[in-house]
Write a structure and sequence with these properties.
The complex is a heterodimer. Chain A is of the alpha/beta class. Chain A contains 13 helices and 16 strands. In chain A, a hairpin with a 3-residue loop joins β15 and β16. The two termini of chain A are about 30 Å apart. Classes of the chains: A alpha/beta, B mainly alpha.
């Protein structure tokens, strides 16, 4: 495809264009790379541990999902080290993994046929922490010029785009925990407007002491100090969540373009997407999650009975867990669909969690297994959800999956993934 | 300030392009060809000021496009 045809196609939107996921790049607390992460998730291996004591001993909560096996120098050229926060190094590594998995070689494609759409909710805390410290101890002339963008939500998209020469439509979405799914929705929009290859997803990292203070200030962190007990979504004893770092970057493509270039793997279709916003507090109207689910199903042309598993937002806060259970049972009926929450093993990754749950959903479709939530004991009977619990994954044919995410401040997003038609037997 | 000082500062400020040999004869190479963009040069100028006490105004940074020009500027200021 020439630059001119790309531009001409971009002028119109074709809602019938199918968008497929052809590459997965995972940087998760319990595994680097999609397959390692998936194996750890099925085994119930957690990446939640205590933050290194250096500088952190005074904080009341210290559990976090940490990508401890990541060595930046192994993934990032020296040229980019002085200008990147840890979050961007993780994002660049995830993008590289996704491109490799998809066998997509940007150098061989027209630069305007590829775009980057990511989400990020926290920016680069560690970098800014260091530079601001220089500002008030040594003066403004010592502050790195790269502070101008290294902290910024948009920097992951920018650095991925520059590194791989992707000059097509690109963007950034910020919607706290819901933003990662919004990025996927917007990536599909870009494909339907005529850009065939989009790198999309979300990655976060804000576990340095300054970032950590912000997590604590949310008032939503679990007070538990035992890693296994600290984030138990839907459990009767749930008392909050554990934050984490990492996420996933995916390659989303126009199904026809993917077929034309001979894409080796098609993990599934991004069949439906919707986002809603909660009514103002005190309005008496219900939260927007149920509407997001219904709209995403409608967008996918999928009735509720065709959904084989729900990857829940799983806030780990009793009132929010109850709200989510209410929305799920309203659409699917009591105990009407298996519900799981692999993020109990990683912590909540903000913009990273939605795309990581999408990876899980796609691999559930591929392998016919639903990962369990290992540490949940009793689920309140009133929730009426079929939560997949225990040590073993549940074997079940999965053809269509729903992924949910909610962001603090009223954001809701839902995504429907479906086995690609060509992959069906 | 020597070329070796400049090499060290540039690598600290903006890393090294894997396709460029900074150890070679680079006195008259353009910074852009060595993989250093305008931000990298601003960062380099700030480090030079911290270390050698020579202030290079932002607009001047853009004019000093080669190691030779930059080193000449710094030594001229240091002498005068």
């Amino acid at each position: 495809m020439t630059q001119a045809t790309v531009a001409a196609r971009a002028a119109q939107t074709d809602e019938r264009t199918t968008a497929v996921i052809t590459g997965l790049g995972v940087v998760a607390p319990n595994g680097l790379g999609a397959e390692k992460y998936w194996a750890a998730t099925l085994r119930g291996e957690s990446g939640i541990r205590s933050l290194a004591p250096r500088g952190m001993s005074g904080y009341p909560m210290r559990l976090a999902g940490q990508v401890t096996s990541f060595v930046a120098e192994d993934h990032i050229p020296s040229r980019l080290m002085p200008q990147t926060d840890r979050v961007t190094r993780l994002a660049l590594a995830a993008a590289e993994l996704a491109l490799d998995d998809a066998e997509l070689r940007p150098g061989e494609l027209p630069e305007y046929s590829m775009g980057v759409v990511t989400s990020n909710a926290s920016g680069g805390f560690e970098f800014t922490h260091r530079e601001i410290q220089k500002l008030w101890t040594k003066g403004p002339q010592t502050v790195s010029v790269y502070e101008s963008f290294a902290w910024f939500y948009a920097v992951n998209t920018g650095q991925i785009s520059i590194r791989h020469g992707m000059r097509g439509p690109s963007g950034v979405l910020v919607a706290e925990q819901a933003g990662g799914l919004d990025a996927l929705g917007h990536a599909r929009r870009a494909i339907r407007r005529g850009t065939p290859h989009i790198v999309t997803g979300g990655v976060e990292s804000s576990l340095d002491p300054w970032g950590w203070v912000s997590h604590i200030a949310s008032g939503r962190l679990s007070k538990e100090s035992v890693p296994e007990l600290a984030y138990r979504p839907f459990d009767h004893g749930a008392d909050g969540y554990v934050p984490g770092e990492g996420g996933a970057i995916l390659i989303l493509e126009d199904a026809e373009a993917a077929a034309r270039r001979g894409a080796a793997k098609v993990y599934g279709e991004l069949a439906g997407y919707a986002a809603t916003f909660d009514p103002r507090p005190g309005s008496g109207r219900p939260p927007g999650l149920e509407q997001a689910i219904r709209k995403a199903l409608a967008d996918a042309g999928t009735p509720p009975e065709e959904i084989d598993v729900v990857f829940a937002d799983a806030a780990g806060i009793p009132c929010l867990d109850r709200d989510e259970a209410t929305a799920i049972t309203a659409v699917f009926g009591p105990h009407g669909v298996p519900v799981t929450a692999p993020k109990a093993l990683t912590g909540r990754l903000y913009a990273g969690s939605g795309p990581l749950d999408v990876v899980c959903a796609l691999l559930s479709i591929r392998d016919g297994v639903i990962p369990p939530v290992p540490n949940v004991g009793t689920v309140p009977a009133a929730y009426q959800i079929d939560l997949v619990r225990g040590a073993e994954p549940r074997t079940a044919p999965v053809r269509t999956a729903l992924v949910l995410a909610r962001g603090k401040g009223g954001f809701n997003a839902a995504v429907v993934l479906r086995k690609h038609r060509k992959e069906e037997k | 300030m020597t070329l070796d000082d400049l090499r060290r500062i540039m690598v600290a400020c903006a890393g090294e392009d894997e396709h460029v040999d900074l150890g070679g004869d680079i006195m008259d190479e353009h910074f852009a060809d060595l993989g250093y963009d305008s931000l990298a040069m601003m960062e380099t100028a700030a480090k030079i000021e911290n270390e050698f006490g020579v202030r290079i105004p932002d607009e001047k940074v853009a004019e000093l496009t080669t190691p030779r020009a930059l080193l000449d500027f710094v030594s001229h200021v240091t002498v005068s």
